[in-house]
Amino acid sequence: MALVDKFYSMDNGRIANGFLVASYSSFGVPGQQWYAGISAIVMLALLWAWTAALRRTSGWHVPRGVPLFSAAMILALFCFASTNTYKTFFWPASSVSHTFPPVLAAATTIPALLATSRRGRAFAVASACVVGTVMGTLSEETSVVALTLLVLTMLLARRLFPSGRLAFVQAWCVSAAGGIVLGTAVLFTSPGSRNRRAHNHAGAMFTPESLAASLRGYVHILLTFATNWQYLGAIAVGTLIGLLARREDGGIPRPDRRASLVLGFGVLALLFSGYVCTVITHPVFGSSVATSNRLWNDYLFLLLLLLVGAGGLLGNMLVRRYRSGTRPMAVTAALLCVAVTVVLADSLRDLGSDMQARGKAWDRQDRTMRNKAAAGVTVLPYKPLVISKMTEPFGNNGKRSWPAACVATYYHVSEITDRSRGT
């Protein structure tokens, strides 16, 4: 609880974030090492349950294994098709703030998708409020994306849902949005959040200069998304679903106009919420907001879902047009998914080698520094061990002093010096 209190009182106000950080940091280095694997299992389980709930709600049937395959493909693209996978997935502090929250937000809809009784609907509404409150104290950016989608859903509810479900959908959206607003209010009024805003001059985020710089950065981010061919894997898995999905009577589904409406407004939600996320992170990151890819995951997940949806419509259109001649298309879509996965696996192999080499070097240096600190040495030499552009002490020509201060605090010494420069 000490770390949670530190987050609330001093750092940033993110209570739920502090709880998750404490859950792995309490185990020391092993907690940092095991976080990625454990979080991957949790996220895959949530996405698998979510895709299964979507299939059940739609009433469509797909071959056994397709929901799990789809969930795994989306998660692989989300975590590993990044320009810097180490920061977005293997670095726990980033994953807790920007990778896990979007998946949790999607999974929050599972009780609503499966609710068929009055008790089930009541549970869905209550759980939406609880998870929304947690989300508000976990990730400001995912909260922005979720609120945007909730508001759009409430505005379009009469055009998207049958009258028998309308009241429940609206109540669920209001409950989820209310929870997010409540959690955000707790975060925003916390001493830690006030300290963070004051330190980073957050009041300047709405100046014309900052808004224009955020727009330039956001355009650069969108261009990065558009030129990442690996995201074609999301369209491919959606196309596969569209080709294989059938109604309960064995017929081919025929999506109505609501499908294109959801995709169209989903794109608007992505563009708007992504820009807002860029605006609120710009005071902290400045121009580097356009290259700090870990900040993009909060709305990248929505992009991937939209690509899957577009692929689903494409697959459905193909199967309705060609009917019996779609097996080669399904095989092609599956092979494209496999090809993307192979490329991702190859990049992970290279990263794994770098992580192993750094881990060994870090262990040697850690033992040396601990032994010297235990012997009473108060000034320790430290060699930066950079991986995947992670911030290390003495980087950027020594302009940032806080990394060195953090390392000195970690080893309980007064100062560290740059061993690589002999100082």
Proportion in helices = over 70%
Which structural category fits the helices and strands? mainly alpha
Number of strands: 2
Radius of gyration over C-alpha positions, nearest whole angstrom? 23 Å
Series of secondary-structure elements, N-terminal to C-terminal = HHHHHHHHHHHHHHHHEHE
Please describe the biggest sheet, giving its number of strands, its sense, and whether it closes into a barrel. 2 strands, parallel
- How many alpha or pi helices? 17
- What is the 3D shape? globular
Brief rundown of the structure:
By secondary structure, this protein is mostly helical. The chain is built from 17 helices and two strands.
Q: How would you characterize this protein structure?
A:
By secondary structure, the protein is mainly alpha-helical. The protein contains 17 helices and 2 strands. The two termini are 38 Å apart. The mean pLDDT is 91.
Salient structural properties:
17 helices; 423 residues; mainly alpha; two-stranded parallel ribbon
Helices, strands, pairings?
Elements: H1 2-11, H2 15-25, H3 29-58, H4 66-80, H5 85-90, H6 92-107, H7 110-114, H8 118-136, H9 140-160, H10 163-188, H11 191-199, H12 208-226, H13 232-244, H14 257-285, H15 297-322, H16 327-374, E1 379-382, H17 402-410, E2 415-418
Parallel strand pairs: 1-2
Helix pairs in contact: 1-2, 1-11, 2-6, 3-4, 3-6, 4-13, 4-16, 6-15, 8-10, 9-10, 9-14, 12-14, 13-15, 13-16, 14-15
